[in-house]
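Thanks for the sequence, V.! I ran RQC P-site tRNA stabilizing factor right away. Repeating your input here for the record:
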Amino acid sequence: MRLDKFLKVSRLIKRRTVAKEISDQGRIAINGTTAKASSDVKVGDELAIRFGQKMVKVRINELKETTRKEDAEGMYSVISEESIKTAE
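Predicted structure:
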């Protein structure tokens, strides 16, 4: 499954276009490698996503083409969530 589609279906990012923009900016890594929106993800991969001042690491548990809001969180598990300090 494409990275941008996974992010949308899992509801980590609300819109696919936003997921594409973020990945094109180099703010997403799959297993430590910077990823593009078209990168393939599979079960067991670890994603590191930078949201502004926050870094979130998740592990992919399952892939689905569509999902209901209640089931979306089961597609991934959060490994860590940390604030990023900015240099002043």
